[in-house]
Design goal:
Layout lengths: L2 H23 L1 E8 L18 E4 L13 E9 L12 E9 L8 E4 H7 L7 E7 L1
Parallel strand pairs: 1-5, 2-4
Antiparallel strand pairs: 1-6, 2-5, 3-4, 3-6
Length: 133
């Protein structure tokens, strides 16, 4: 009879642990990059925002509600055969400053500098996990 509470506790701990991993891992998507000049932007006009920036696709642009929000982006793999292992193993935090134009090829369009932190730019497009911070 004493094993039932132990099993229940273990199951509860496992569920909580998996939920926490899910929160840390973030949402899956793809990233591309764009090059300077980074102004004007849809969110801040000609006000300079640095280089750790990104443009949001329609996936989370939400009529401009994404402006100024910060996301941690991590490369998770290649999307093509050109660069089979593009990821550097690092993550980058970017601020949404723009709207990715119609036909955008990624979930998020990182600045060239931000993309280079997490992946080889020769890849062009990568698989990512991202989460708002």
């Amino acid at each position: 009879m004493t094993t039932m509470p132990k099993v229940t506790s273990f199951v509860m701990a496992a569920v909580v642990g998996l939920a926490m991993v899910s929160l840390v891992a973030g949402i899956s998507g793809t990233a591309t990059f764009y090059t300077p000049p980074y102004t004007p932007s849809a969110c801040f006009g000609f006000q300079e925002q640095g280089t750790m920036i990104a443009a949001a696709s329609d996936v989370f642009w939400n009529g401009g509600a994404a402006c100024g929000k910060r996301y941690v982006v991590t490369c998770t793999g290649a999307t093509n055969q050109g660069v089979p292992r593009p990821c550097t193993g690092r993550s980058v935090t970017v601020k949404i400053v723009d709207h990715c134009p119609s036909g955008c090829q990624g979930t998020i369009d990182l600045s060239q500098e931000a993309f280079a932190i997490i992946a080889n730019p020769d890849a062009g497009k990568i698989k990512i996990d991202y989460r708002q911070v």
